[in-house]
Automatic annotation (TrEMBL):
It holds the Pfam family FAD_binding_3. Residues 8-168 form the FAD-binding domain. It comes from Nocardioides aestuarii. Gene3D superfamilies: FAD/NAD(P)-binding domain. The lineage of its organism: Bacteria, Bacillati, Actinomycetota, Actinomycetes, Propionibacteriales. PANTHER family: CONDITIONED MEDIUM FACTOR RECEPTOR 1, GERANYLGERANYL DIPHOSPHATE REDUCTASE. This is Geranylgeranyl reductase family protein.
Length: 388
């Protein structure tokens, strides 16, 4: 029989969720034997909006990794629009735009400096056997974290592939025009709701630009259509754009607990179907659930009960994101109506609190506040009254 390499914790996928899981575990228990595997070498590119909300840094700061945004200019202004409706204002806290090629490599470095063993390997087989989890033919661990993205091999092995709605997005980089400098710009489209194009200024003369929409119906979006929609909403983005990459987004639903089974295998980030269904943002969910997974693994190992990790982790994520996921699900449903999207923009333009609540709901762990709901209702009633 071939000898197996044995670890306390194996993390599959070295993106933000996986690297932070390894880092959080090692911060809690420095002597832990942690394996971090990914099918790619780093640095590597990844399709993403690249926006790093302040909520992400709140998770990374206690882990000593908030400096991953160093050297990238903070953005303080956000512009939202649909047709002639528009609101622009200063966000309560700055956002950074850091290419994933940079961010992910920095997080991997933090994890390896803390003690994780990084290995290039594509995991195809995951089997929970007795008190160990077997990975392919030569690896085993007491606890495994699946952080291997939207096409997670770990989730498939568990029979827990997220079954919620999916979106698709196409991202590139284009020179930043003067009118979009020093800001995040989001322009909602007309084709399918919710859908929008974005331009996020990196601060180095280039912007992350892209377009995304729900997948469904008889006309799934093609690459050509996504580029056409981006150019229609943000003229000038496509001709000089480069590094175009598409990516599926497994959107979060009303509740999440059913995705995570009991046992020693945990799912984090995209692998757990955790992507904001209103905005497509996933980095906060990735680092937040990655940190929770790493800490839950340590608690279970300390208790000598690795099989308890799943229950510990599920409770932690529900406590962290449960109510928020209910609110983002409701907001995403509402935003399928162009009328509601327009009313939301009007409400945010009238009321600073509504503006701030939308930012929190879309980028972090916010909720539909009473003021936001009241402002939305007022906008809808005003529009209805004007039409009669």
């Amino acid at each position: 029989m071939t000898a197996r390499e044995s670890f306390d914790l194996a993390v599959v996928g070295a993106g933000p969720a996986g690297s932070v899981a390894a880092l959080a575990a090692l911060r809690a228990e420095p002597g832990l034997r942690v394996l971090l595997v990914d099918r790619h070498d780093f640095p590597r590119d990844k399709s993403c909006g690249d926006g790093i909300a302040p909520h992400v840094l709140e998770v990374l700061r206690p882990l000593g990794a908030a400096d991953v945004v160093d050297g990238w200019a903070p953005l303080t202004r956000l512009e939202l629009s649909r047709g002639s409706r528009q609101v622009a204002g200063a966000m309560g806290r700055p956002v950074h735009v850091v290419p994933r090629e940079v961010l992910d490599a920095r997080l991997v470095e933090r994890a390896t400096v803390a003690g994780a063993l990084l290995r290039r390997h594509r995991v195809r087989r995951v089997v929970a056997a007795d008190d160990r989890v077997l990975l392919d033919d030569g690896l085993e661990a007491a606890v495994v974290v699946g952080a291997d993205g939207a096409h997670s091999a770990v989730a498939r092995a568990l029979g827990r592939t997220p079954a919620g709605q999916r979106a698709v997005a196409l991202r590139g980089y284009a020179p930043t025009p003067p009118g979009r400098a020093e800001r995040q710009v989001i322009r909602y489209g007309e084709r399918r709701q919710p859908s929008y194009a974005w331009s996020f200024d990196r601060g180095d003369g280039w912007s992350n630009v892209g377009y995304g929409e729900l997948v469904g119906g008889a006309d799934p979006p093609t690459r050509a259509l996504l580029l056409d929609q981006l150019e229609e909403l943000l003229p000038g983005s496509v001709p000089q754009g480069r590094q175009w990459r598409g990516h599926p987004l497994p959107l979060s639903g009303w509740a999440w607990g059913g995705v995570q089974p009991a046992g020693p295998v945990l799912l984090a980030g995209d692998a757990a179907g955790l992507v904001n269904p209103m905005t497509g943002e996933g980095i906060y969910y990735a680092v937040a659930t990655g940190a929770a997974a790493g800490r839950a693994a340590v608690r279970a190992l300390r208790e000598g009960a690795p099989g308890a990790a799943g229950d510990l982790y599920r409770r932690d994520v529900r406590r962290l994101l449960g109510r928020h996921l209910h609110h983002t699900w409701a907001a995403a449903r509402l935003s399928r109506s162009p009328t509601v999207v327009g009313a939301g923009i009007d409400a945010a333009a009238r009321d600073r609190h509504a503006f701030d609540a939308l930012v929190e709901l879309g980028l972090g762990d916010g909720r539909i506040t009473r003021r936001l709901a009241t402002g939305l209702a007022t906008s809808l009633l005003t529009k209805r009254g004007a039409a009669t």
